[in-house]
């Protein structure tokens, strides 16, 4: 497919099955966004198969992913692989927001391209770490694709493909926001492990957490903007969407400080306690 506009090019990057090419395209599109025409009104046809992804990792049901301890070298690799897979999906989720939804302000598309580029950076940081981890009996380290993974993030993307308000509510404001809660808990476990690999992973997660506050903030901004346009009450509508689309249950403890920085209001933070 020959891309003529920024949104065509985002779709082409989403379709790309080669990991390194996808990451490079995501970064280049963001860096060169102002050199492309941005047609905000075009309705682009959905390809039959999305997203483009490599043959591995093998995808399994979320309930089948085995629990793994970060206290062993293989468990550490499995944990990093799981986060790496989240970042790979996150590149696709951000690119999907760019091509799929017409009729939004230009800044909507530029925001999600920036997110796609940052997710590509996160993916690359974690993959580089994974590749440097020792693997028993093998000359080389681990790589993305070496463990099984589940497809929960992309499934929510598909479920909300026809509803931009639900997409903003349930992908950045729910799934990405769960990462804000989970990251300090993972870092605390890694601190207990205390190995050089664990210390290195903590530092990577610091970078990721910093950027993810920005992604959730972008989700909050556009969710509120859309609610205002459509005369919806953001808190009540969120509750309805969470039920309607089967949003995953939120698990305390919540990272109130990061959620506040990401733009959740005091009412929304109180409401979290009701949703669990
Ligand atoms: Fe990320
Ligand atoms: Fe993100």
Find the count of extended strands (DSSP E, 2+ residues).
2
Q: What is the helix/strand order?
A: HHEHHEHHHHHH
With helices defined by DSSP (H or I, 4 residues minimum), what is the helix count?
10
Computed Rg? 19 Å
Bound molecules: fe (ii) ion
The CATH class label is: Mainly Alpha
Task: Offer a quick outline of the entry.
The protein is mainly α and 276 residues long.
Describe the structure.
The chain is mainly α. It has a single domain (6-37, 70-275), classed as Ferritin, core subunit, four-helix bundle (Ferritin). It is built from ten helices and two strands; from the N terminus they run ααβααβαααααα. The protein has a two-stranded parallel sheet with strand order 1-2. α6 (164-193) runs antiparallel to α7. The longest helix is centred in the last third of the chain and has 34 residues, at 196-229. The protein is globular, with a radius of gyration of 19 Å. The model has no long low-confidence stretch (mean pLDDT 94). The site of one fe (ii) ion has 6 residues, from α3, α4 and α7.
């Amino acid at each position: 497919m020959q891309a003529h506009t920024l949104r065509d090019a985002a779709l082409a990057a989403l379709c790309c099955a080669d990991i390194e090419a996808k990451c490079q395209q995501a970064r280049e599109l963001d860096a060169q966004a102002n050199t492309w025409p941005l047609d905000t009104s075009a309705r682009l046809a959905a390809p039959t198969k999305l997203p483009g992804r490599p043959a591995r990792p093998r995808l399994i049901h979320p309930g089948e992913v085995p629990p793994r301890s970060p206290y062993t070298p293989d468990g550490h690799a499995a944990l990093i692989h799981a986060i790496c897979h989240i970042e790979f999906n996150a590149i696709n989720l951000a690119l999907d927001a760019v091509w799929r939804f017409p009729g939004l302000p230009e800044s909507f598309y530029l925001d999600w391209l920036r997110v796609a580029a940052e997710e590509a950076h996160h993916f690359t940081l974690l993959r580089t770490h994974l590749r440097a981890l020792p693997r028993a009996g093998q000359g080389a380290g681990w790589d993305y694709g070496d463990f099984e993974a589940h497809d929960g993030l992309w499934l929510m993307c598909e479920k909300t493909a026809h509803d931009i308000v639900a997409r903003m509510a349930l992908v950045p404001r729910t799934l990405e926001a769960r990462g804000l809660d989970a990251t300090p808990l993972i870092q605390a476990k890694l601190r207990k492990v205390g190995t050089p690999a664990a210390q290195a992973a903590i530092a990577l997660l610091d970078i990721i957490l910093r950027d993810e506050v920005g992604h959730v903030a972008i989700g909050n901004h556009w969710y509120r903007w859309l609610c205002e346009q459509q005369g919806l009450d953001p808190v009540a509508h969120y509750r309805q969407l969470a039920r309607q689309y089967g949003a995953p249950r939120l698990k305390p403890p919540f990272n109130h400080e990061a959620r506040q920085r990401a733009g959740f209001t005091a009412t929304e933070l109180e409401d979290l306690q009701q949703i669990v």
